[in-house]
Amino acid sequence: MLAKLDITLKCTEKLSYQMSSLFHGALMEQVPDEYGEFLHQSRLHPYTQHLEMREKEWHWVVCCMDETAVQYIIRDALLKLDCVEIKKKQLKIEIIGKEYSEIKQKELAKRFYEMQSGRYIELHFLTPTAFKQRGKYLFYPDIRCIYQSLMNKYDAVVKEESMVDEEVLAQLFENTQVTRYDLKSVCFYMDSVKIPAFVGKITIKLAGTQTMANFARLLLEFGEYSGVGIKTAMGMGAYRIMKSGG
């Protein structure tokens, strides 16, 4: 199951996407200790969260990618919450709205067989996004890294089938071209670490077979829940599919 809870916030203090790691701390305070320890030890987390400004309001968006995470994080905790307490900043932030949606993974996979994906897709990277390769940060939208990250995250939550395939990854990379971009370099601060990253928009063109285009679209739609790249549980790597066509 893929689920998303979009929480509208009301706060007199100034918020920013840099505070999403503090919201992560507030989230962990809401889950049972045993489950929190499991999440702490897991390499690829079954949830993401981030802050974003939309129509002059701040939203805290939390996504879960398996039934257990949905139960502990959304149903048992966040749906019952009426304010978010950021203890480090001594802030109590009022929750003024919640919008919940979910989709079964089988429904998402079903689209792969039924849809006719457009050949042009615009992605809007809402929060700082980066990748890590050979111990170094990569802070631009490398197509291979995007697909590889999404395939790894998909495999982590859909254990009965594997997405990671070097041949398929190579075909996706060879048949995807960035045709337009509007990007900005930014930094994401987490404790004392400064992570170089990027935000902004890219438009990609999908070549190859319709099956390959559909597969790329499936991965990208999954990524709206999983995020892409590093530190997605801390607020990085959130993006939205803006439009597609062609």
What do you see in this structure?
This protein is α+β, with helices and mostly antiparallel strands. The protein is 32% helix and 38% strand. The protein contains seven helices and eleven strands. It has helices at 20-28, 33-41, 67-75, 105-114, 143-157, 166-174, 210-226, and strands spanning 2-10, 47-54, 57-64, 83-86, 91-103, 120-129, 131-133, 136-138, 176-190, 193-206, 239-245. The strands form three sheets. The chain has a five-stranded antiparallel β-sheet. A hairpin with a 2-residue loop joins strand 9 (176-190) and strand 10. The radius of gyration is 18 Å and the shape is globular. The model has no long low-confidence stretch (mean pLDDT 91).
Which secondary structure elements does this structure contain, and how are they paired or packed?
Layout: E1 2-10, H1 20-28, H2 33-41, E2 47-54, E3 57-64, H3 67-75, E4 83-86, E5 91-103, H4 105-114, E6 120-129, E7 131-133, E8 136-138, H5 143-157, H6 166-174, E9 176-190, E10 193-206, H7 210-226, E11 239-245
Helix pairs in contact: 4-7, 5-6, 5-7
